[in-house]
Amino acid sequence: MKTKHLKSTLAVVTATLTLVLFNNFDFFSWHKPVSPSIEGVSEASRVSHAKELLGRGYFGSDAQKIEGRKSLNYMIYSKVQANLAPQWKGHARSITRTVIAESAKYHMDPVFVLAVIKTESKFNPLTVGRYGEIGLMQVKPDTAEWIAKKFKIGWNGKKTLQNPEANIKIGLAYMNYLRTKFNGKSVRYVSAYNMGPGNMFRLIAKNVKPVEYNSRVMKNYHAFYSNLAARSTVTTVAAN
C-alpha cells in the first residue's frame, strides 16, 4: 500500500516538474523554426573591402558599427529571404552560402554583393535585361561564358545563368576581374560592371568620372548596412 502511494506521489511530482520545465525553459524546441546552418562571414575581407568602397567614410559608418558581429551571416540570410519572391525562398540558404563563400574567395564584402544584386535584378533569378543580361547579377551570356572558362566555373550554355548560385559565382568572378583590371578603384570597377571595361577606359581617357550606376549600388549598400546596424543594436539590447 505504501509502495503504491509512493509511486503515485513520484508520478505527480515528475509530471509537475516536467510541466514547469516545459513552460519556463527552452528544453523543448521542436515547435520553433530552426535556422539553417550557414558559414560565417570573413570579417577581415568584409572590413577591408568596405574601406575600399567607402574610403574615409568607413569610419563612423554603419559598416563599421557592426564590426565583429558573429551573427552577420544570419542577418544576410534574412535579407536574402526577405527580398526573394515566394517561389524562390527555398533557395535563400544556398544563395546566402554562395554569396558568403564567393565573397570570401575574392576578398569582398558580402553586403556589397547584395547591393549589386538588388541594383541589377531586385533578387529575381529569371529576369532578363535589355541587352540580354540574365539572372541575379545580370550577366550577358557571352561575357559569362568567357568568365566561366577563365575561372574554371561550370558552364552549360546561357541557361546556366538562370541558376542563382552559378549566376553569383560568375558575376563575382567578373567583378573580381574588373577590380584587378582597374587597380581596386571601386568607382571604376563597379561602373565597368555595368558599362563594360572598354567604355570605362574611354571615360578615363576623357577624364570623366562615372556616377550614375555606382551611386545606385552604393545607395543600396548604405541602405542594407543601415538596416543591419539597426537590427544589430536591437539584438544587442535584447540580449542584455
From TrEMBL:
Pfam families: SLT. Residues 99-207 form the Transglycosylase SLT domain. InterPro entries: Lysozyme-like_dom_sf, Transglycosylase_SLT_dom_1. It comes from the Bacteria. Belongs to the transglycosylase Slt family. PANTHER family: MEMBRANE-BOUND LYTIC MUREIN TRANSGLYCOSYLASE C, SOLUBLE LYTIC MUREIN TRANSGLYCOSYLASE-RELATED. This is Lytic transglycosylase domain-containing protein. It comes from Bdellovibrio svalbardensis.
